[in-house]
Each structure stands twice: as C-alpha cells, then as structure tokens.
Design a protein that fits this description.
It is built from 13 helices and 18 strands. By secondary structure, it is an alpha/beta fold. The protein has two domains: about 375 residues, Alkaline Phosphatase, subunit A; about 80 residues, Arylsulfatase, C-terminal domain, CATH 3.30.1120.
Amino acid sequence: MFIRKMAGSLHLLACAIVGGLVSAGHARPPNFVIVFADDFGFDLECFGSPTTRTVNINRMAAEGMKLTQWNTAHSICSPSRAAILTGRYAIRSGIFGNESTIQPHTGDHRVVHPSCYGHLPLDEVTIAEALKPANYTSMAIGKWHLGYAYENTTLLPVGHGFDYFYGTPVTHCEGPPSYPAVPVFQNHEKVGRIGVDIVREDLVYRYADQATQFISNNANNSFFLYLAMDNTHSPVYSPANFTSLRGPYGAATEALDWVVGQVMDTLTKMNLAQDTLVVFTSDNGAWYTPPPTQAGVVGPFQGTYAPQELGYVDTGKGSSWEGGFRVPAVAWWPGTIAAGTVCENFTSSLDLFVTFLNLAGAPLPTGVALDGKDISGILDPSGIHARLPHMPASKFENSGNYTFFYYRGPVLMAARSGALKAHFITHSGFGHEVPVTHDPPLLFNVEVDPQERLPLEPARYHAFISEITAAVEHHQSTVKPVTPQLDLIDYKAMDCVGLSEKQSGCCMQLAGKCTY
C-alpha cells in the first residue's frame, strides 16, 4: 500500500503507521455518509482547480485523505449508482441495455429514463439492506436513477432497504419537453414536481436540510446516508447566491461544496465527526458534450491517444478511457484517518460495500458475487473499528494485483491490473463512430501515463496480456445472464399520474413529447 502525507515528504509503505496516534474505545460501529456528485470532474481546489472555490471539500482533504487512483465502477449514471450501492458491476444486476450501448448513442438504453420501466431488481442487496443486521438506519437523498414506473414506489430506495428517501427518481433535467415534469418523493409519497410546484434551484437547500435533519435525528443510532446530488449534471443549476469565476458550472460546484459543509458541520455539532466515515466522489467523469460553462474537466486523464482514432476528443463520461472512470475521491474520518494523507493505491466505488460491512460488523450477503475489495486497511489503518477480519481483495488475483474491469453496457471494453491497463475495444463517450477492436490489446501504464498518450509495445508484455486475458475470462465465467433492464422501454410507462387530461394524453403518446 502506498500512502503519503500531503504536507511533507514522508512516504509510508504500511498503512498501519498512519493511524498510530488514533485513540481507541469506540462503543459502536461507525456511521457512513456517501456524497455522490453527478458528472463531476476534477474541479476541486484540492485537486488543482484554479477557478472553483471548494472550501469544505478542501477541508475534508486537509483533515482526511485524498484517493488519487479512485475509479467509479461505470462511466455513466445508472450503472454507476447500481454498482456503488451493491458492490457489483452492473452487468450482474441488469442495469445495462443491449441496444445502443456500443452503437451510435440514443441515450434510452444506457440510463434509466422516465420512459424506461426497468429497474434495479428487488433481490439485489444494497448497502442499506446489508447493514440492517447491524441495526443501521439509512436514508437516500437526491437522484435515484435506478427505476420508477407509474405508482410503483417499491422500486424507489424505500423498496431497496432504505428507511427514508427524499429526492427524484430520475435526473432533474428529464422533464419537459420530452417527458413529464420530474416528481419529487418523500419516502413513498409524491410531494411535488420540479418546475410545477418545486423550484429546481431550491433542491440544493432541500437536500441539505434533509441530510442535516437525518443526521440530527439519528445521533444515537448507527446510520448510513447516501446523498446523491444533481450537481453538476448539465444543465447545471444552483441558487442565485452562488457565483463563480467558472460560470454556472463553478456556481453549481460551490453549491455542492456548501452542502458538503452542512453535513460536516452537523456531524461536528452533534459530536459525531469521529464516529462517521464520509466519502465524497462522483458517479462518473466529466461530460465532454455540454459547453464549458455547463461541464467539468477530466483533469490529466485526457485519453490523448483517442483523437488519433476519432479525430476529436470525447474521452470523459460514457467512455472507457481514464477520463470516464477516474474521478476525485476524498475520505474524512477525524481521529481515524490521519490528516493530510494521500492514498495512491487503486481503489473504486465497488469497494465501499464490502468495506462498510466489514467496519459495521455486518455479514456479507450469501450467494452474491461481489466485485469490490475491502479497503478498511486504508481507511482504518490501525484496525480500531474493524469488527471482522479484513476480507481478501479478490478471489482471483493477477500477480498479487486486483483486477478491475471497464464496461460499456454489457461489453467489457478494458481491464486493469496494477499499473497496466489493456483496452480490448475503444469507443468515444457519446460518438457515432464504429468501435475499434484491438488484438493484441492497446496497452498503457496509467500510473506514469494517465493521459493514455503513449501505447506500450505488446511484444514486450506477453506475460501481462496472458494474465489479464485469463482474468477477463475468469470474471466473465462468473457473470450470469440477466434481463437487460434498460432495454425495457415504453413511453406508456411514464409517470403521468396527477397531470391534467391534456398533459396525460400527450405523455401517453409513443412520441413522448410533452410541451406544457
């Protein structure tokens, strides 16, 4: 493991050294908070952004840990959300579509749209459900994006192990003119619609209020809070009092940072900070399609080899290049994570499921193939909070390295083990070009060449190619066929309940164009 102090030159090869000053004697397992940003790039001051003020996330990093090789499990919204909550690639849960996932982009088959009646299967075990045996109370706030049709609220978080929910079933922008106005739910009850009786910009305050109330109300309980913000999905939004040199995107980023500050301040006020692990990250990399005022940057992860194939750059969200998967991550746990540390180990959003359960002392679900590894040795190096022995990184290891797989829908595009990444198929995030197959695979050392600019000579890496190919074959042998949930499209399945007769009639048309 490789962890270093940000404010010095001390390099520590053993995580246990970092936590040497942590005090013991925690009466209960830690609380968990995930702040999940949307389409967020490397637009944080603590990751080098010169124009966006993120004072609260800076504080998280200064008092906690930056994870500089953190990857999201998928490079687009719905599959990524399924993966972080289940610890499983979305190929296992069916949050993908066979149609249009590797062909020219139509959008309808890569995420859950209002016209999709597919959903995260109810037998999938989420973090919230898995923590129940350890007596955790849980709440999901914000964007769900894992299923909702008609009045079937069992598909919302309250049907997946969460005790409480406040938020939207789909992305905030998936309303008129193409779809009905996006509903907002409190648990099972619809409490309004964006643009009808709820002001979109006010969601920032609503989500912050819900989060702080939940924390305050559960000060004496072990809890899990999943705070999935809309920020910074295009079109970005923020209350009028947030402004930035970076324009609307910067303002949305600073609103997101303010919400993070509200969570941290509430935990501190309630004397819960030392008992709570907070992780900030993003569902996928920044999106190249919107204009610069509406989208983030992918930092150094440009995928600069790609334009040689494409003639243009689209190597962020939606792609299997580093810019689609490599996202910022910060972990804050005062008294356990040493202040100002940087973890340069490979980590991913898949890891949180197993890690949280280990720290909570909750059993792993039986008969479920999990894809993440336990990183509690990184986040809790002294083992103070460990309730179970550390779990193995993977049942199949490549030369001692964990193997990570890059999917686009049902197609395995690439795999990484250690510093080396092998692209078997490449494609832009949202382009219309024909995918390029690479045999032998296109190789990069993404630790020294995160831009994926300098392909390695395959002839010099026969052993690695054999190992990574074997890892892919083994992984694929564990994937059972499931229904592609995102291919379940029917405009008649859209939520038109509660709209006027004219509006409902419009929405029930197969064209799905609502102009109100």
